[in-house]
Amino acid sequence: MHNIRQYQLPLQRYMAMMDLQEGNERLFYKLLIDNVEELLPVVYTPTVGEACQKYGSIFSRPQGLYISLKEKGKILEVLKNWPERSIQVIVVTDGERILGLGDLGCQGMGIPVGKLSLYTALGGVRPSACLPITLDVGTNNEQLLNDEFYIGLRQRRAIGQEYADFLHEFMAAVKQNYGEKVLIQFEDFANHNAFDLLARYGTTHLVFNDDIQGTASVVLAGLVAALKLVGGTLAEHTYLFLGAGEAGTGIAELIALEMSRQTKIPIEECRKKIWLVDSKGLIVSTRKESLQHFKQPWAHEHEHVGNLLDAVNAIKPTVLIGTSGKGQTFTQEVVEAISSFNEMPIILALSNPTSQAECTAEQAYTWSKGRAVFATGSPFDPVEYNGKMYVPGQANNAYIFPGFGLGVVMSGAIRVHDDMLLAASEALAQQVTQENFDKGLIYPPFSNIRKISAHIAANVAAKAYELGLASRRPRPKDLVKYAESCMYSPIYRNYR
Ligand SMILES: O=C([O-])CC(=O)C(=O)O
Ligand SMILES: [Mg+2]
């Protein structure tokens, strides 16, 4: 840590950590686990975003498996080149929507690598069982195509049938090579592919989309916790999203599902408490024809509303959630408007990395006069306002996917079911202590994350058994203890 702290720039710290991961894996994980709050922003958001943007020029050695269009027809052989045989979790991207930074092509590899480091550090999945994969199907990022250090194919993205066939070969090859109990986490695909891939492979493979399902689970947990501070039930609140992509519609759907479970009201009715704004304004029924399919369930009856501020004033939400990938969109007017009709507005600025956050913590607390219950996707420092300290929570899927994945792997689950996402969410919300609430926090600190992950894993596994989706026999009696016993620990022996 002394050496890492010598570096002033976050990117230098990132590079030092990546060197350490390569050279001394055990020490890398020991550091990461023991200093998680300090190092998470280095190996994960926001620094991993900058690393991906500059990946070509900081590249020293490949950290995961690249599979390019050129390998079409031979993907199985390429997979067999990976030295480890027993893989439990794959995180795969095609780099088309890296965080809120857009198309970074092959340079998106930083994301699967970072996510899998957290699978190990936060969730205890063995490092050797983790496989980061980037599918190189080209990039539409002109700057990268002209960058002498770009590490991927210099061609525009494959689309349509060519893309579908390539992905199909990949999915089949993974199953053939690793069996059906390998968890495939889709990460940072563009909206136009993410929903389709999840729908297409959700019934034949063990797949999980972190941006749709992981984010949904973490946000639902935060909301359930926030209600303890703000009051009311899920169904008594009104939700407005800016951004109707993977995160926005994924969160919205999981809230509606949980609302429906709690109230026994049909989910179609529950959806009406939830409104989404996209780049063309409020999503309303008159726009239905021209909407992408994943937005259509949210097209409720309402007159046309052109922008977020007008939507806030028209819908009067109690909860405002930013998932658009665009920074500085929760303006002073927007935050003041929602604060004018809520004693304690719940405001979540979820876009990553920090540069894309809808507003900063300081803005949220200042503009709401310290009344907002606030969390962000990327970390923000505590803020002092009017002599009081405010600590924003980090509503990031990193709370969920490591424990979720552990639960799936340890139970030998063969499919992911929505109820397992609800189980993960419930377990996370239960880990928020009175001490956290007293500080206004709706998430527990990351310093306890391994214990939290064990509880998430246990709840997810329990649900998998209940649903008949778990193949591991016999079912361990104490699933929390079992989860803990499964977790990789970078232990140093004391020989003295
Ligand atoms: O990686 C993160 O910090 C959260 C996430 O999945 C995203 O923003 O796409
Ligand atoms: Mg993501």
From TrEMBL:
Q: How is the cofactor bound?
A: Divalent metal cations. Prefers magnesium or manganese.
Q: Determine if Oxidoreductase is one of this entry's keywords.
A: yes
Q: Which SMART domains match?
A: malic (SM01274), Malic_M (SM00919)
Cofactors needed by this protein, per the record, are: Mg(2+); Mn(2+)
Domain annotation Malic enzyme N-terminal: ranges: 21-202
Statement: the UniProt record of this protein carries the keyword Metal-binding: yes
Where is a divalent metal cation annotated to bind? 187-188, 211
Q: Which residues are recorded as binding (S)-malate? A: 97, 352, 396
Biological process (GO), any one: malate metabolic process
Q: Which UniProt keywords apply?
A: Metal-binding, Oxidoreductase
Q: Which residues form the active site?
A: 44 (proton donor), 115 (proton acceptor)
Q: Which GO terms describe its molecular function?
A: malic enzyme activity; metal ion binding; NAD binding; oxidoreductase activity, acting on the CH-OH group of donors, NAD or NADP as acceptor
Q: Where is the Malic enzyme NAD-binding domain?
A: 212-465
Report the domain of life of the source organism. Eukaryota
* PANTHER family xref list: MALIC ENZYME-RELATED, NADP-DEPENDENT MALIC ENZYME 1
Q: Into which family does the record put it?
A: Belongs to the malic enzymes family.
- Quote the protein name from its UniProt record: Malic enzyme
- Species of origin reads Brachypodium distachyon
Lineage, please? Eukaryota, Viridiplantae, Streptophyta, Embryophyta, Tracheophyta
